[in-house]
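Following up on my earlier thread - several people asked me to post the actual chain instead of describing it. Fair enough. Here it is, all 109 residues.
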Amino acid sequence: MFSFSSISLICCILFTWNQVTNGIACYVCTNCNDPFNPTYVGVSYQNDTNYYCRKMVVANNIARDMITSCTSSSTAGTSQWCCQTNLCNSAQKNTLGFLLAISVLKVFF
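Reply from S.P.:
Thanks for posting it. Predicted structure:
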């Protein structure tokens, strides 16, 4: 029988493998709500892992999309966050991959 730590490790490997083989998925919307509710927005898929998911804030207007080149930045009234994991542009920080990694580390240590 599998232990909980073995199942957690297998899940981590499957999440990582699935993302690499299938490319990337990002939320896409203009005038997005914040706090974010993914129920009423589109999702864009790309079979190329060289794409980025982006969340952009310009004068309190929020947009989420997918682009080929991105650098996170923040200036007066404009901010941009870039990431390369599935659906990571739902929030500014704490993506699913990061939370999953912390959970796995807690199991083993």
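The radius of gyration is 16 Å. That should answer part of your original question.
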